Amino acid sequence: MNRSPHSDTTTEGFRVHAAAQYLPHESEPEARHHVFGYRITLTNVGAPTARLLSRHWIIVDSDGGREEVRGRGVVGEHPRLALGESYSYTSYCPLPTTWGTMEGSYTFARDDGSRFQVKVDRFFLVPSAPPLQVESTSRG
Q: What number does CATH give the domain 7-121?
């Protein structure tokens, strides 16, 4: 059984690795404000070239509060990935609780105009997750 708080899944020839870490220097626990940085790496492992158009996140805190976030691109970009290419970005997620989960999907478009969804399996926003290299913070 995999006990990693991260996720790694492949849909439509695109692999998505998601990992998060707690950011204590940006959190205020006494104000119920817990910030988690996360890093997403998208890799085209066997699909025709496609461009990321949008994202959809489902964020659930440990009290059962649920938030859905939809938006164009990621961190202001719309990466285009040919076979074998990768794109990584970092962002953050504030929660009112000490842990939660994120999952969702990306909408991509192929050069022929056809669209498809790439799944992001659930990953955990937990203080015990291994550290990441999180350089910047953009709401994803």
A: 2.60.40.1470
- Burial track 97-129 (b if 16+ CB lie within 10 A, e otherwise): eebbbbbbbbbbbeeeeeebebbbbebbbbeeb
**Per-residue model confidence as pLDDT tens digits over 82-138:** 999 999 999 999 999 999 999 999 999 999 999 999 999 999 999 988 777 544 434
Which residues fall within 8 angstroms of residue 1, CB to CB, at 6 or more apart?
none
**Closest Cα partner for 123 from 20, 36, 43?**
20
Number of other CB atoms surrounding residue 10 within 10 Å: 16
Report yes or no: 128 and 66 within 8 Å, Cβ to Cβ.
no
Contact of 35 with 97, CB cutoff 8 Å = no
CA dihedral 97, 90, 120, 117 (to 10 degrees): 130
Residue in this structure with the two tokens 């890799």, named with its chain if needed: 43
Query: Which pLDDT tens digit goes with each residue over 33-50?
Result: 999 999 999 999 999 999
In the 8-state DSSP scheme, what is residue 83?
A: T
This prediction's pTM: 0.89
